[in-house]
Amino acid sequence: MEKLGWHPFFAQQISLEEMEDTPPVRVVEVHRSGLHVLGEGFDMEIPSGPEATVGDWLLLNRAVPSASRVLERKSLFRRRAAGTSRKMQLIAANVDTAFIVSSCNQDFNVARLERYIALAFESDVTPVILLTKADLCDDPAPYIEAASALSPRVLVVPLNALSDEPATKLADWCKAGQTLAFLGSSGVGKSTLVNALIGHARAATAPIREDDAKGRHTTSHRQLHFMPDGCAVLDTPGMRELQLADIQEGIDDLFADVASLALQCRFNDCQHETEPGCAVQAAVAAGKLDASRVTRWRKLVAEERFNTASLVERRADNKAFHKKVRAAVKHKKK
Ligand SMILES: Nc1nc2c(ncn2[C@@H]2O[C@H](COP(=O)(O)OP(=O)(O)OP(=O)(O)O)[C@@H](O)[C@H]2O)c(=O)[nH]1
Ligand SMILES: [Mg+2]
Ligand SMILES: [Zn+2]
Question: What residues have CB less than 8 Å from 142, skipping those under 6 apart?
Answer without folding.
Answer: none
